[in-house]
Write a structure and sequence with these properties.
The chain has helices at residues 3-18, 48-64; strands at residues 21-23, 29-31, 36-37, 70-72, 86-87. The protein has a three-stranded parallel β-sheet. Strands 1-2 form a two-stranded antiparallel sheet. By secondary structure, the protein is α/β, with parallel strands linked by helices. The relative contact order is 0.20. It is elongated. Helix 2 links the parallel strand 3 (36-37) and strand 4.
Length: 92
């Protein structure tokens, strides 16, 4: 399945963005975060609309649960073996 690879790429992007600090002209520091949601054709639907809705629902869940996270419908192990997901109900 492609889901572990997609999760790994999105998690890599999330970490990269979070690691940078933008210093504003007044010296204030700005830190950005990424919240993301992934959908799977096996569990969330077959049409583009169904998949986008499922991914969007999970992204909003990530924001509600504290931001700076990736939410998928089932656990996904990254290649390093580390787990960094929020498990959701497929009906959410």
């Amino acid at each position: 399945t492609w889901l572990p690879e997609a999760f790994g790429k999105l998690e890599q992007l999330r970490l990269e963005v979070a690691s940078h600090v933008i210093v504003l002209p007044g010296g204030e520091e700005l830190r950005l975060t990424v919240s993301g949601g992934l959908a799977d054709t096996h569990a969330d639907g077959k049409t583009v609309e169904e998949l986008i809705n499922a991914a969007d629902t999970r992204m909003l869940q990530a924001k509600r649960e504290g931001r700076n996270r990736v939410v998928v419908g089932s656990p996904v192990a990254t290649r390093s073996g580390a787990w960094r997901v929020v498990i959701t109900d497929h009906g959410a």
